[in-house]
Write a structure and sequence with these properties.
disordered C terminus; single chain; nine-stranded mixed sheet; six-stranded mixed sheet; elongated; alpha/beta
């Protein structure tokens, strides 16, 4: 008996991680997607991500904390032993402003690390805190250069025999017909992110974008930073992360739920840069934003699902489907944990231990 045939729809970080784990279990996998690594399109969220592992983007409660718990060792190992994946360790500092103390947002910052005891953190001494900062914590995390990591995932999949195809589907059931070795795959995994809102057979109206805007600069922050609030509105953020392997430093940002606008807002870009320089003066050696060396401006749409990430099995038009989408801003940091749960569901559906019988 040969290996069972699976089509993964979507080639973002969730689709690629799913395909990689499935291929390691012996399944014959085709990845079929409209967008692939190397593309920069507003429909395709993964290339625009920072991306890092900081426990502030979690939106799916305890389930997501478990996914993050199982993802952290993998990302840590890649940073330690596989530099070709484009992941490196970074000291990380998170601050709570005095004026935010007591707010729900500040409490989220304070509570976040308590759900991630595997991150060893310490309080920043009071004498190191600038005026207006009530408290701060420091820990080591990782930052991912998405321009390297996504192609690296593709390369690992290719090594395991995964086949990649460009495809656009009107209905999720149609994906079963594009497997490279069969015109009727045994199962389809739906990793379409925000596109699950309009994909036939799914049409999940709980999906909505959270618009993020960033400025990518050449200046090195030598660390990652985040702070509990800004004076520029509740949907604006201040964070900094320096990507591995010359990927530049990401300055962000915003968290604009329901906003589909794909074009950078130049006024927001100025506010982002001003907040970043205030948060980390070393970016410009104490000078103004005119001393930032800009690589590009970017906009990405985080795939939020109201009610939490969808990870479940279903039969649609006679096709066995496992859904895994709606990770919002936590796709990278929950990728291996959630995709391992996909593997378990696939094995349940196909009634197999997942390994090819040769």
């Amino acid at each position: 008996m040969g290996s069972q045939n699976i089509v993964v729809v979507g080639a973002g970080v969730i689709g690629l991680t799913t395909a990689l784990l499935l291929s390691r279990e012996g399944y014959s996998v085709t990845v079929a997607a409209k967008h692939m690594p190397g593309d920069y399109d507003i429909e395709y969220a993964s290339p625009w991500a920072g991306a890092n592992y900081v426990p502030l983007m979690t939106v799916s409660g305890d389930r997501a904390h478990e996914w993050e718990k199982h993802t952290w060792p993998v990302l840590r190992n890649l940073a330690q032993s596989h530099p070709e994946a484009g992941i490196h360790f970074q000291p990380t500092r998170i601050f709570v402003r005095t004026k935010d103390v007591g707010s729900a947002k500040a409490q989220k910052f304070i509570d976040a690390l308590g759900h991630h005891p595997w991150l060893t953190w310490k309080n920043i001494p009071e004498h190191e805190l600038r005026p207006g900062i009530q408290s701060g914590v420091e820990f080591e995390s990782v930052c991912i250069n998405t321009a390297i990591y996504l192609p690296w995932l593709v390369s690992q999949c290719l090594r395991n025999g995964v086949v990649f195809k460009r495809a656009v589907f009107d209905h999720v059931g149609d994906a079963a017909s594009v497997h490279h070795a069969s015109n009727s795959a045994d199962l389809v995994v739906n990793c379409t992110g925000l596109s699950a809102r309009k994909l036939g057979g799914v049409e999940d109206q709980a999906m909505t974008p959270i618009r993020g805007q960033v400025v990518v600069v050449r200046n090195d922050a030598h660390a990652m930073y985040s702070i509990s609030g800004t004076d520029d509105g509740s949907d604006e953020l201040a964070y900094i992360m320096t990507r591995a392997a010359g990927g530049g430093t990401i300055l962000g940002g915003c968290y604009q739920e329901g906003n589909w606008d794909s074009q950078p807002d130049p006024n927001l870009a100025v506010r982002i840069m001003e907040r970043a320089v205030a948060l980390c003066p070393n970016l410009t050696k104490g000078k103004g934003i005119e001393h930032l060396s800009i690589i590009r401006h970017g906009v990405g749409l985080r795939p939020l699902r109201r009610g939490g990430t969808r990870l479940e099995k279903e039969i649609i038009r006679g096709v066995r489907v496992v859904h895994c989408y709606g990770h919002a801003g936590a796709g990278y940091q929950s990728s291996y944990g959630s995709c391992q749960e996909v593997i378990s569901l696939v094995q349940q559906v196909l009634k197999t231990d997942g390994r090819a019988h040769l």
